[in-house]
Inverse folding.
């Protein structure tokens, strides 16, 4: 069994949350971001990594989550073998990584671990209630 990277990626996750627009001024910008991160792993298990990434690429808020995951993987040099060209952005590298059938399981594990690190770190921030799209369930 492969060793989990989650604990060693917490600092990168914290930095990424603040740098990519998910957290601003010490608060989670939209409650949806926390929900998207919370459901990411379950979505991968239910429909697979390729379908999950395709789904998350369709919407700008979901895509922000993928960008954050890609940034963590790039920061920790897990995408360097995928993208030899320096001009390719992190998200494109992540997508290229899941097309490598020989290493798909490995990339899937890294992607899920990065999402878990983000999920753990986002829970340390308070929600910015004025910018959140809270739905009335009454």
């Amino acid at each position: 069994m492969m060793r989990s990277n989650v604990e060693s990626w917490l600092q990168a996750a914290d930095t990424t949350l603040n740098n990519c627009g998910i957290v601003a001024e010490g608060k989670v910008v939209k409650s949806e971001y926390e929900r998207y991160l919370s459901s990411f792993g379950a979505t991968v298990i239910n429909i697979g990594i390729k379908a999950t990434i395709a789904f998350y690429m369709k919407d700008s808020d979901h895509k922000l989550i993928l960008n954050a995951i890609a940034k963590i993987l790039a920061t920790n040099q897990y995408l360097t073998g995928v993208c030899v060209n320096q001009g390719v952005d992190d998200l494109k590298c992540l997508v290229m990584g899941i097309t490598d059938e020989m290493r798909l399981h490995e990339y899937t594990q890294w992607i899920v671990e990065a999402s878990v690190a983000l999920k753990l770190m986002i829970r340390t921030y308070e929600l910015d209630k004025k910018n959140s799209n809270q739905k009335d369930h009454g």
Notes: The mean pLDDT is 87. Residues 30 and 129 are 8 Å apart (CA to CA). The two ends are 46 Å apart (CA to CA). The longest helix spans residues 104-122.
